[in-house]
Amino acid sequence: MSREHIEFIQSQQLEWLAHPKLMDVTYKVLSEAKNGKGLTALYTIPEGWSSHRAFTLHCDEELFVLHGELWINDVLHREGSYAYLPRHFERSDIHCSKEALVIRLIAGQDTPVVSFEQPSADTPAMLGVDTITLPWDHSTIDGNLKHLCASRKILRICPVTKAKTFLYSVLPQTFPENNEGKQEYHPTPEEALVLTGDLIGPHGSMRTGAYFWRPPMIPHGPFGSRTGCTCLIRFVGGEHINHWTEAKTGFSFEAPYQPILPDSLAHLSDKPARLRINF
Fold it and tell me: Which Gene3D superfamilies match (predicted)?
C-alpha cells in the first residue's frame, strides 16, 4: 500500500491518457503504489462504450460516478452513485449510456482476469448506491472539527479491516477559532477528492478536482472553507482514528500553494488552481 505523499494536486493539471486496455477510454492517474498494487485514477468513458466479456480483478475496487451514467451488471450508476466491487467479483456486462467521468479506487493491479473464484462472503458487493438519498450525519464528527460545521455520509466500512469510505461536507465561511487549531493525524493512509467547493489548509486552497494521498501519521490542518465543500474521502487498510497535536497551528484563507509532491509531479508545484475550476 506504499504510495508517495501527494498533498495536493489539482487533477485538472494532469493530462488525459489513452487507457492501454480499455479502447476509447481515457484516464488520469492520481496516485499509484510503488509496487503497482494500488491505483486511484479518473476515467472518462464515452457514451455507447460497452464491455460484454466477463472479467474480475484480483483485488477490491471502489468507484464513484462524478458525471454521466454507467451500467454494471444491469445496475445503473448515475451521478453521485457509489459501488464496491470485492476481489473476484464478476463484471459480466458494463456499458455507458451517457458519457461518464468516474473515479476508481483500486486496491491492487488494474488487470482484468477470468477467475472462477468467488468473492468472500465477509465483504459483499455494493452496486448502485445512490448517495443523494443517504442522510447527512454530524453526530459522530470529532469535536475538534466543530468549527467546520461538518457532516458525513458513510458509504462503506469494511467489516474486516474497518477501512472507511464516506462523503464529507463542510459549510461555507468556516474557520478555526482565533485562526488557529490543533493538527490531526491518523494511523492509516487517507486520500480525498474534492467534488465541489474549496477546503483551505496549510498547503493552500484545494478546489473542485483537488486530490491528496496522505501516508499515516502525517499531521495536517487546521482547515477552513470560503464556499463550503463536499469531498470523497477514504481511509485505507484500517480504522479511521483521529489523534491530535498539543500545539496549535495557524490558519489563513490566503495560504499560498505549497504542495508536497513526489518528483514525478514536481512540475505542478508552481501551478495553483484558479478561483473557479471544474473537472
Answer: Jelly Rolls
